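Dear Dr. K.,

Following up on our conversation at the group meeting, I've run the structure prediction for Ammonium transporter AmtB-like domain-containing protein from Macrosiphum euphorbiae. I'm pasting the input sequence below exactly as I used it, so you can double-check it against your construct before we proceed with anything downstream. Let me know if the numbering doesn't match what you have in your notebook.
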Amino acid sequence: MALNISSTVILNDIMTTQLDLEELKLNIDDMFLVINGIIVSFMQVGFACLEAGCVQPKNVTNILMKNILDLFICAISYWLVGYGLAYGGGGCLYYGKEFFAGVGMPSSQNGVWFFQYVFAATAATIISGAVAERCNFIAYIFYSVIVSGVTYPIASHWTWSPDGWLLKIGYSDFSGAGTVHLLAGTCSFVAALFIGPRNGRFSTIAPNEYNGHSMPLVATGTLLLISGFLSFNGASLGHITKPGDGVIVANSVANTIFGGSGAAVVILIMAKAGLVGESRWPFAMTINAVLNGMVSVCGGVNQYTHFSAVMVGMIGCIIYLVLQWVVPRLKVDDPLETTAVHFGGGLWGVIATPLFVEGGFWNNPDSMPLLKSNLIGAGSIIVWSVVNSAILFGFLRVFDLLRVSKEKEIIGLDMSLHKEQAYPVTNIFIENGHKNSNKTTVIRHAYDNVAMQHTLQQ
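The predicted structure tokens came back this morning:
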């Protein structure tokens, strides 16, 4: 009798320990997603600094406000509609049918929701660089809501939901080369096409020069994006408690760096050889090439060897340079080169996955079927993004909501839309035509003087 009681107690202790271990695993997986989601959210800081440094001083407040609000506007749209369309279940091949506004969603999915929401916000943020310095603020709100709430979630359902049709035909994209970057890059190109170039950007007589105003901001933003990218790719596994998870995450993080390294080597060699650009050591072109290299490895970053990741990044850099040259010649004004970086890197990332994983296509009999599936996936994502973007930005353009007026663009969006300048400007005080430090009349901000000069010239 005592032996039976002892056996029962031991069995209960074992079961309790197993339950505790399972609970601990769930908690660790949740914290893995939450912590890495927070790190990925710092990419918003990176985008904010990068974009702010690449635009004129008169548009910095506008850029910063957009990047801050991305996190909050996208949170609402992804909670109301996006997560349900992406991962709501219901057995549909094309979109989810449950969890809208969080209804019926188990609390155990909050960690997954948070990590996926940050991805949705990233997809929407990328577009802001393509329409910088002339986009109306109401248009920004519209496209952020639609992209994070509809366009991206449906594509992510296709590729990552267990019910998704692309996943079922064998499409493989570990951390979003197609689902995030190809989609966002395509939307960016369509947005830039519909909104038109900045004032005088492609003028045949005297084209306006649009150069960034702060290289330190650009550099800071790039470094933050690189750090965020490591969690973006590493945590895409979704868990850390299964056997081998640590190896996969570490490999993904290392390969993210190696992808950027391959691109960096190529751009520096080509620039030094005088094959690209005017500078022999270009700064802006180098950072975009590096970002493109990191985007390029997203598709198979968990499976690449380090050598393969370097090769993928190198080829991605070539694709970036081609698109960086082609897009302006199509008279499409993309200030941050989002099409070259994200469309180019994303498309190549989807194609590269079957060519370089598991020994490469020459040693892997599964490469050709996977290549077929990924090409179908890439084409579907491009078509979906083009159709959605054409409807969205076409609607905004028809109703004159997409772009600010020429006068507001010349003055600058900081003053014309927000009445808050990013940088203090010394005021000029006059009285009866002479400088006076006592009784003064404030002459308007320097950008308003520029606007007045343009108006008088017309």
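Two things stood out to me. The CA atoms of residues 308 and 356 lie 6 Å apart. The chain has a mean pLDDT of 90.

Best regards,
J.T.
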